[in-house]
Amino acid sequence: MQKMKTTAAQFTYPWQLCKTVHLVRHGQAMHNVEGDINREALLSPHLFDAQLSPLGLHQVGKLREDVHASGLLKRIELVVTSPLYRTMQTAFGVFGSTESNEDAGVNHPQIMAVELCRDRMGVRPCDMRRRVCECQALFPSIDFSMAKSEEEMAARMVLFIKWLWTRPEQEIVIVSHGIMLQHILNVLENDCHPTVRTDLCKRFGNCELRSVLIVDKR
């Protein structure tokens, strides 16, 4: 988990107008591996809705350990994930409930798949997703009621932020894709000091977690 630089608060806002948002990029997926070798591989049908690589699964396990050890899991009220396979694997792998002894007595947050925070909708098979019924069979504990078609990337992020403010939860995780997380931060960056903006909006690494406090000033 990356610790962001912080400065003393300059303003005071009612807690009802604030949310703590934890942004997580999915672990390394197979299209990341093959795309690093040959960009043309991203057009290969065998990478349809690409899943995590062995390294990606290891990254997820490590982040899960960090989230448990830091006490963050106890504070999370909702996990929002892109409905692509690699992000759902990451969301469930880090924040989901298992049958292991380490989960005994642990209150795991609801995980909700939301179409608004999925990757770009283009021609690359790795960015196409399975049907909702297939996803439900693979991840029965994830809520797919919000997995519907929506608008394009930049506009979707504005809609997504607006949707976030309709949620009653105060501390939320968003598991998505690097480009989408940067678009989210671009929507939020207007009030940031330039030095903070530069650090905050740099490219995400696989399975990297960044935390921000957002304020509704309307």
Structure notes:
Mean pLDDT is 78; it is low at 2-9. The protein is 36% helix and 16% strand. With 218 residues, it is of the alpha/beta class. Helix 4 (85-95) links the parallel strand 2 (78-81) and strand 3 (110-114). Helix 2 (54-70) packs parallel to helix 4 (85-95) and helix 6 (153-166) packs across helix 7. The chain is built from eight helices and six strands. The chain has a six-stranded mixed beta sheet with strand order 4-3-2-5-1-6. One of its GO terms (cellular component) is cytoplasm. It holds the Pfam family His_Phos_1. GO terms for molecular function: phosphatase activity.
CATH class: Alpha Beta
Q: How much of the sequence is in beta strands?
A: 15-25%
| Distance between the ends | 31 Å
User: Low-confidence spans: pLDDT under 50, at least 5 residues?
Assistant: 2-9
Protein name: Phosphoglycerate mutase-like protein
GO cellular component, one term: cytoplasm
Family: Belongs to the phosphoglycerate mutase family.
Organism: Gossypium tomentosum
Give a brief description.
By secondary structure, the chain is of the alpha/beta class.
